[in-house]
Amino acid sequence: MTDSRTHVAGDWYPLGLPENIVIGNDVYIDSSYGFANFHSRLQPGLTVGDASGVYDRAALVVGPRGRVTVGAFTVLNGTYVICDDRVDIGAHCLLAWGVVITDNWCGGRATCAARRAALNATGTDSARHPPSAGIPRPVVVEDNVWVGFDAVILPGVTLGRGCIVGCKSIVYEDVPPYAVVGGDPARIIRGYLDPDDTDDARAEALATATRGPLIRRSALNPLRER
Length: 226
What we know:
six-stranded parallel beta sheet; mainly beta; UDP N-Acetylglucosamine Acyltransferase, domain 1
């Protein structure tokens, strides 16, 4: 049988990457093991923008109707993305190790009967992926967001552009653009940052950076076809 999946060079996990994902140029993927619980049936179920990275045991736990998008130049460093409907992560974001982003959970919004039905359905599913016990609510992480380690972003939350979420924070509600939040529940703790990441400021920074000689390097962990 021909293996049509894409495999990461030197990967210890043999199954490779799912066929229904779209990977941009110069994307780093640590191991395809991060996709072991990726069960999306959508086309595509995941889109990863140019020069992004999926590092250090990051995991995408995606249900059959889930879809995840990751913008360019974004780092998922040991991040867990749990998606039964929609999780959109913008460009130039940094999500630290232990961060959990979930669009669904079995908290107070799910009845006992719904949780029991989900567990029973899991037992008859060969993939052992628990179906939604509650109603998924999409999560949006806008551009240039920094989320500290072990923070949890709960269903329905939008993290506004340029905001910072402190380590071990639990985010229940939307975070305004450029706000600095922390705690459980997360609240504004340091006011707001200056919005210096506008398109004009970014273009000027890139122009300054490219006036000198460029050093080009190939991807550290290129993908190969089997």
